[in-house]
Amino acid sequence: MWRCIGVHVLAGALTLPAVGVADTLLPKTRTMTVSAQIVAGCGLKGGGQDFGTLDFGVLPAMTAGDVSAVAQGGSLQFECTPGSTLRLSVGGGLKPDAANQRRNLQGPGGALVAYQLYADASRTQVLGIGQTVTLSVSGVVNLPIYGSLTLPGGALPAGVYTDTAQVTVTY
Fold first, then answer.
1. Could you tell me if residue 109 is left (phi over 0), alpha (psi between -120 and 50 degrees) or otherwise beta?
2. Secondary structure percentages of the chain, helix, strand, coil, to 5
3. CA-CA distance, 22 to 29, in Å (whole number)?
4. Coiled-coil region(s) at which residues (predicted)?
5. How far is residue 151's CA from residue 55's CA, in Å, rounded to a whole number?
6. pLDDT band at 94; cut points 50, 70, 90
7. How far apart are CA 59 and CA 68, in angstroms?
8. Residues ≥6 apart with Cβ < 8 Å to 2
9. Could you tell me the end-to-end alpha-carbon distance of the chain, in angstroms, rounded to an integer?
10. pTM of the predicted protein model
11. Mean pLDDT throughout 22-35?
């Protein structure tokens, strides 16, 4: 008797799901929404991934006064939609002064020479440490970085003076 009851329960369990599937009408048609939002912006163009080197050249130790340069060997190039805005900021480098107000090149014996960076060739848009400069752009634009340093004239030991600064561009 146990065998008969077991067979009936098993057979009933197998037929129940088939009844539920037969009640579903196929196919069902539904809709979906497709959209895109196009916004003004910029994209990095070409293979350049850095600003190159800002080299003030070879200068006699007795030189006094201002020396200017523009970064060579690299210039980030962006392509932007009309009305776009780029924001450019530069960190303090490896040896900023204690107040984090000026960048310094470091040379022999830890000697320091202060320098300044600019976003424009006329050197009116100062790139202060961590300060953001906003540039309105349209089409293909290059972002060179310009610099100047003031030599004290004979007060520095001869040698190579260097620094490395992090540049951030947002758009």
1. left
2. 15, 35, 50
3. 18
4. none
5. 14
6. very high
7. 12
8. none
9. 81
10. 0.70
11. 81
Q: How far apart are CA 107 and CA 156, in angstroms?
A: 9
Say if residues 115 and 163 touch (Cβ distance below 8 Å).
Answer: yes
Per-residue pLDDT, averaged over 74-92, amounts to 84
Q: Please report which residue ranges of the chain form alpha helices under DSSP H.
A: 2-22
Read off the tokens for 130: 């961590």
Please give the full DSSP string across 26-83, using - where no structure is assigned.
Answer: S---------------EEEESS--S--B-------TT-EEEEEEE-BS--EEEEEEEE
C-alpha angle 94-165-144 in degrees, rounded to nearest 5: 155
Whole-number Å distance between alpha carbons of 153 and 161: 15
Q: How many Å apart are CA 68 and CA 114, to the nearest integer?
A: 13
Nearest-angstrom CA–CA distance, 148 and 65: 10
CB-facing half-sphere around the CA of 136: CA atoms within 13 A: 2
Just give the CATH number of 62-152+162-170. 2.60.40.1090
Domain boundaries, the chain: 62-152+162-170
Asked if pLDDT for residue 104 goes beyond 90, the answer is yes
Q: How many CB atoms lie within 10 A of CB 98?
A: 6
